[in-house]
Amino acid sequence: MFLGYWWKLCRYVGNVSSMYEPFYKFIQQLSPDFKVDVVRIEPLLKSKLIYKGEFLFRENDICEFVGFTLKGFLRTFFIKDGKEYTLFFHPEHRSVGDYESFRKQKPACFSCQAIEDSEVLLVNHQVLNAFEELPDGQKLLRLHAENLAFMLRDKLLSLFRDSPEQRYLDLIQTEPELQRIPQYYLASYLGIEPESLSRLKRRIYQKRNS
């Protein structure tokens, strides 16, 4: 009887220790009341090591998974007229992937590359189906899709509304881990040239020390 009770407890996140615990915590932040059936989900999960400079997927690939950064740092970007434009950064404990390509089996609109040696948890269609079959699983996926939409909205608003200096200041305040990445990636994300970013940083430094 005791063993049966213990097994029931261990089926749910919060009662087990796992290398995927950051992923489960990410889910609980999305939906605090959602219960992950670890015994059912975890055997389906796989992770992938991606070394610095390698790609998780490339533009025009059909994505067979979305991911979650367990370790390291990735970026998503596209190329136009030979120039790279960084869309988002994906440090530890962030989701990553082209969700539309994954769900609709359409070519990806951008590429995903490791800035550092990284490990990514892969969520394929089998994992997604298992989540959908859990109580409130579809609600969880809807909340995640909404979060992605809100993040894209904030990015677009900032590009049109804020100056590069304001975007930079907001970025280093809300995401200080971005200061560890090469500056040319950060400039690409801000929509400016690396030289302009250097001048911007000098101007901010002078203001703070004047």
How would you describe what is shown here?
The chain is built from nine helices and eight strands. A hairpin with a 2-residue loop joins β4 (73-80) and β5. It is an alpha+beta fold.
- Strands ordered across the widest β-sheet: 1-8-3-6
CATH fold topology of the largest domain: Jelly Rolls
**What percentage of residues falls in helices of 4 or more residues?**
40-55%
Mean pLDDT: 87
How many whole angstroms does the radius of gyration measure?
20 Å
Provide the succession of SSEs: HHHEEEEEEHEEHHHHH
- Taken as a percent bin, the fraction of beta residues is 15-25%
Q: Rough shape?
A: globular
The total number of structural domains is 2
Count of individual beta strands: 8
Query: For the record, what CATH class of the largest domain applies?
Result: Mainly Beta
CATH superfamily of the largest domain: Jelly Rolls
- Whole-Å distance between the termini? 71 Å
Let me know the largest β-sheet: 4 strands, antiparallel
